[in-house]
Amino acid sequence: MSDLRELYQTTILDHYKKPRNFGPLEAATAHAEGYNPLCGDRVTIHVLLDGEIVRDVRFEGSGCAISTASASMMTEAVKGKSRADAERLFQSFHQLIAGPPGALPGPEEVGKLAVFSGVRDYPTRIKCATLVWHALHSALGEAKSVSTE
Amino acid sequence: MSCGAGEARSAATAPLDVKRLREDFPILHRMVRGRPLVYLDNAATTQKPRLVIDAVSRYYAEENANIHRGVHLLSELATAAYEGAREKVRAFLNAAETREIVFVRGTTEAINLVASSYGRGHLGAGDEVLVTVMEHHSNIVPWQMLCEEKGARLRVAPIDDRGVLDLDAFEKLLGPRTRLVAVCHVSNALGTLNPVLEITALAHARGIPVLLDGAQAVAHQSVDVRALGCDFYAFSGHKLFGPTGIGVLYGRAELLEAMPPWQGGGDMIASVSFEKTTFNVLPYKFEAGTPHIAGVIGLGAALDYVQAVGLGPIAAWEQALLAHGTALLESVPGVRLIGTAPQKASVLSFVLEGVHAHDVGTILDQEGVAIRTGHHCAQPVMDRFGVPATARASLAFYNTFEELDALASGLRKVIEVFA
What pTM was estimated for this model as a whole? Predict the structure, then answer.
């Protein structure tokens, strides 16, 4: 049970049961979808960019505890950040759960997302945690291409 | 065919010595995550008895040679073992002739062979292939690809809320343009045992051939292709305690004779010149290139093994396991079984309220309990039941009541974690 609590931390379960920033975002300037065929998880991310700043971000979809909590906590983490900072946070988050053990990001880099460190020990679940981040990455990329038109 | 629950019950008088049989499977004695392995993912692949593992190693250690063309002793031995296994498959399926047994990589390749060779020759624009909602992707996608190529149409027979085929709707979908029916014998995601006798009778009354996907059937009941009356039957060795990478396509000789080869190469020819190539006779016409000889020999050993255990007693024991497992799961709060057909193989597909199947799978794995979670390569089934995924415990004859108890207590742990 103690091992499981490493993965299913209270914060993760809380965000799974009560996801924050869940639902459509009418003012969104970009959208992207992520799909994990392994578990059938689907997530749609809506982003409102104000210049380079992620002014608002919401998500929809159904998924496992890890992917839902990851989406919920990601929206909280990137809201108000610049696009570049959001992308940097994705890199740090990826390091946290899938990077080499010697190069783990410190708490100052990942903040509350540190609760996902337990995912490292469950290789089949890494995609669950990163799914929404990949979707965010595409949404931010899409926004970029839209803004250059 | 012997597959009904009725026969299973009558055969229950000869119970299996499961404890002793488990000794035949080395992997069943290993630990996972510090606990004894409880392997409940048999619909994905079954474990291998020592006899099969030894047959494969013995071939490589003592008889390894290419088949059908060597003049030396080892080639003779390998050829005899390979063709001996073909005869074992013939007997296992009660096919009329060994030339009706084609070795392929697995069920998927068998279906692709029929789609490619028979399908291309018999389907034109506006023609139809009829499948059911409960098919595995391997019995959907080859037909979609064929229909796309030919301008033909894939028709899909519906199922009810228990996962039972709607036979009336199925019959209505058999039309003047139906060129082939392709149906699973047993559903991998639901466990439903299809009424294949009725299906073949309805199709044959209209002159339509029938392919049965037997991947999930062969390990749980005896199969008699002549009694079933099917035209093609496909199965995989690895779901029948044999090696991966080997499978069987049974086809009625008359149909196979008329079908063109689907892959060219060595062994499938009688003679080759740059002007003209003459194809080999059945079944070699469909076995281009050096086959998976070790796999075939391993499959032969698996058939020997499973028949020695006895498919009658296996079916009876598995029905008892299924009844116990069903009752246990129904007693766990929040569990909903997906697939409750009255005629079922030993598959327990379920969802747990408030917990995603993937989380169920991870937590059970910590308890040493191996199940499958996801869409089981049957996304239309998930859509039909309105779930993104299910957790699936699928049983083999070596499973025990105690292992099902471990599953149920694992589920209680899941509920505790998510409480």
Answer: 0.93
